């Protein structure tokens, strides 16, 4: 079982509640957990000041002060149990808070046995504050780095989207160009075929001309030959007639 931390006993607490007015009492994580277990939500009883968690005030008094009495007395924060004994960081020593109505009535030396506990408690508060602030800073850094990342990524994403869009346009244009080229090739092919056809037709024409020339030559040769044969026949006929006349 955990050893209870010694407390400051205030003989005036039945009548005085000055330390519960406009309080700036700082709570440890253990205090917070203990009070939460009573059914209170953190936002109901806490405020944050420079990373320290302090009791909330309503109408200039602690939220737990009801009819001049502490409503969570058995579970009140550890700082309330030490008060008015506090550790002054500026002078690095233990003092009785001058805001206490009966500060003059207390003898600090009587409370010396509490010093170690107060010091451990106060350093624990500072340590918890540092951890809290580091977490906050880490969260801030995370948010900032996320925002920075987004700031960097967003233009890059935009650029990528633009490139993707340009790529689609280029692909579309390429497809169009390919179609055009295909059409052009067909046209070229048609042109080439037509040219080939023209050459073939010219060759056929040349051949026809050649054949026609050969036919003309052949016909002339036949005519000449017929003429020669006819001449020879005429000569033979003449010779036959001459021979008959000679025989008569
Ligand atoms: S928690 Fe209780 S003792 Fe502490 S300041 Fe509030 S009312 Fe006072
Ligand atoms: S202000 Fe001082 S005297 Fe009054 S209750 Fe608090 S500790 Fe006691």
Structure description:
It contains 4 helices and 9 strands; from the N terminus they run E-H-H-E-E-E-E-E-E-H-E-E-H. Strands 1-3-2 form a 3-stranded antiparallel beta sheet. A hairpin with a 2-residue loop joins strand 2 and strand 3. The chain is mostly helical. It has a domain of 120 residues. The longest helix is centred in the last third of the chain and has 133 residues. The mean pLDDT is 85. The radius of gyration is 62 Å and the shape is rod-shaped. The structure holds iron/sulfur cluster (2 copies). The site of one iron/sulfur cluster (SF4) has 12 residues, from loops. One iron/sulfur cluster (SF4) binds next to loops.
Q: Secondary-structure blueprint of this entry?
A:
Blueprint: E1 26-27, H1 29-36, H2 42-45, E2 46-49, E3 52-55, E4 57-58, E5 61-62, E6 65-66, E7 69-70, H3 78-82, E8 85-88, E9 93-96, H4 115-247
Bound molecules: iron/sulfur cluster (2 copies).
Brief synopsis:
By secondary structure, the protein is mostly helical. The protein is built from four helices and nine strands.
Number of helices: 4
Cα-atom radius of gyration: 62 Å
Amino- and carboxy-terminal Cα gap: 185 Å
Stretches with pLDDT under 50, minimum 5 residues: none
Give structural attributes.
248 residues; 3-stranded antiparallel beta sheet; 60% helix; binds iron/sulfur cluster
